[in-house]
């Protein structure tokens, strides 16, 4: 059992009492007719003193009752002054270990440690505070123990510096960043302050001078751009000063920050998606940004992870590097190159152009309406001049959209101003969602989303192939599902083999899976299998049968895409693999409760029977494909 | 492709009717207290439009809904204006609920909810099942999820 750093007591006490004491003092000394008058000046001071002592006492108790321990399998934390909590976090479930130190903490030599696991809205393990050395030790120990390194001699795996931000690149990062929050604040403040200022300074507003107003708007726009650019520059420098990304064994580690230093570790096997992001400027000069996503970060915990990210998950990635380098790193980490993308059909260009033109049309209409009610003439037709821009914008948007099925990854690309290229390993796909809006159905296109367990996705959107042909979409949907299963099977097999090799049991022979699972070398798998054999049979040979299914479904979609009642018809007409159970099920659904559940059961049995024969064949094909 | 139980239409239509009544009521109140006089047929018309659209959408939704328990995944299709097809691989199923809301109990139906670790569509719900059907489905999905052995769900 280890305690926190003793220095954390005064630090926490000061941190906590500063705000309370300030509020109290403010209340007691200024407003205090009811309160301060009752207590008197001396009484107020005494009250503040009591509060400070109470806080100090609480923090001391907190320190004394906070213990943590790195056991062989779990990180145990026992904490709580009034209500006690014992928490055990298995190392295997830890997604990230983050260390942060602000200026004051750096002076005192302490650090805050956050341990993130997947799920949950909060940081699961939080140590406030330990010494910096201890924080680093926890970070490396967690990594070592996670590998199952009980012997301790495997300490210090080789470090490889992947990326270091040079001052020049830092300057470019700053120059290319815009932070719109500060101008937003200024705007809110300015809009409230303006009438007040105007009442003091009696500006003679020349009546009817549209030009002056226009100049004012342009000047204001420039000012906003300048301020946001300056703010972006400052925040980029503060965030990314001294950025380093290293690879330590099977983890990525980063450090960054000018005032507040962050150290974080990202286990490579917890990577969910990689995103390469750029904008027209970065593209012009051949730069790009890399974002790394794990499932660990709580969506709203931007305070501790990425200041300025607004819950963007880990910003542990590369803020800016040449495009080649970013893609090289992606290839290093995931073994995937930038693929050639398959874009939406060319007719979609028109869809985008129409969409933007409609926006312009609406703007024109609004201006026209305003024109009729305003005393002065305003140029309501100006937006119409932008229609060519809409066409170009549509073409650009079309051009930058696309998706690709790489060997082990689903890759998508979207956006012109902020172009994002996402790499999703197949085995990280959670669900596949295909959707068609009314408008998309008019254009016979569809959008396919591969959902992952990441966190950037909450705000930034998942890997999405937008506006692809309807039948391509149906096929893509099924392909993703198949590849997910194949990738998982391959991984499972690899793991099993390595486990067996580690245990010194006979080497695993590919293609003999069913026998092996009987051999008893993998107890967890085996128990499942023996309990529900029929389901294993059902689930495994799915490759062959499922492909057929998929195509039929896809064809049906395409043929009757315009018909909103497609499902009603296609049920009867679909030449499914088991026509009997199909009709049976249908009847059940139409008629009454009992037959429906019955038919479900019947269907199950049918599946098991039918697939039993075909078991060997698809099994092998799945192995082959998985091994590729 | 399995259809939902036809009785779910009752639930959805009833919901649409209630919503239309509420809207109509609000519109009536607005008419009564509005400073300018509004013809009395306006709130009725508003309520009527909501009623017709709501009922139509409810019926179309029933026609659009379908699900299928495949060998390796659960497949759903639904949506009136926006058609949504979802594939939930069994490997990814975290847990399965079967629920019965008060209104569902009234018409003797139940739903099954499938949870994954995904960030969107993390829970997929199949309404309009008979209670036995929902439990069967839950049980079946559970066993299929176990059999497909998702070692690393995240």
Structure keywords:
A: 628 residues, alpha+beta, 7-stranded antiparallel beta sheet, 6-stranded antiparallel beta sheet, 52% helix, disordered C terminus, B: PH-domain like, 3-stranded antiparallel beta sheet, 4 helices
How are the SSEs placed, and which strands pair?
The complex is a heterodimer of chains A (about 625) and B (about 150).
Chain A: E1 2-3, H1 8-29, H2 36-65, E2 67-70, E3 74-79, E4 85-90, E5 94-101, H3 103-108, E6 110-117, E7 125-131, H4 132-146, E8 159-164, H5 167-175, H6 181-200, H7 210-240, E9 244-248, E10 251-256, E11 261-267, E12 271-278, H8 280-285, E13 287-294, E14 318-322, H9 323-334, H10 347-373, H11 387-400, E15 402-405, E16 409-414, E17 419-425, E18 431-436, H12 438-442, E19 445-451, H13 457-460, E20 463-469, H14 470-503, H15 513-519, H16 523-531, H17 533-539, H18 542-559, H19 566-573, H20 579-590, H21 593-613, H22 616-627
Chain B: H1 8-33, H2 41-64, E1 66-69, E2 73-78, E3 83-89, E4 93-99, H3 102-107, E5 110-116, E6 123-129, H4 131-147
Antiparallel strand pairs in B: 1-2, 2-3, 4-5, 5-6
Helix pairs in contact in B: 1-2
InterPro entries (chain B): YdbS-like_PH
Protein name (chain B): YdbS-like PH domain-containing protein
Keywords (chain B): Membrane, Transmembrane, Transmembrane helix
**Largest sheet descriptor of chain A:** 7 strands, antiparallel
Structural class computed from helices and strand pairing of chain B: alpha+beta
Biggest sheet of chain B, in brief? Answer: 3 strands, antiparallel
CATH fold topology of the largest domain in chain B:
PH-domain like
**Largest beta sheet: strand ordering of chain A:** 7-6-5-11-10-9-8
Please provide the count of β strands of chain A: 20
Distance between the termini of chain A: 47 Å
Q: Which band does the percent of strand residues of chain A land in?
A: 15-25%
Please report the total strand number of chain B as a whole number.
Answer: 6
User: What general outline of chain A do the C-alpha atoms trace?
Assistant: globular
What class would the helix/strand composition of chain A place it in? alpha+beta
Q: What best-fitting shape of chain B do the alpha-carbon axes yield?
A: elongated
Q: How helical, in percent, are the residues of chain B?
A: 40-55%
- Mean pLDDT of chain A comes to 72
Strand order of the largest sheet of chain B: 1-2-3
CATH superfamily of the largest domain in chain B: Pleckstrin-homology domain (PH domain)/Phosphotyrosine-binding domain (PTB)
H/I helix tally of chain B = 4
- Uncertain segments of chain A of ≥5 residues (pLDDT<50)? 298-314, 507-628
- Rg of chain B over CA atoms, rounded to whole Å, is 20 Å
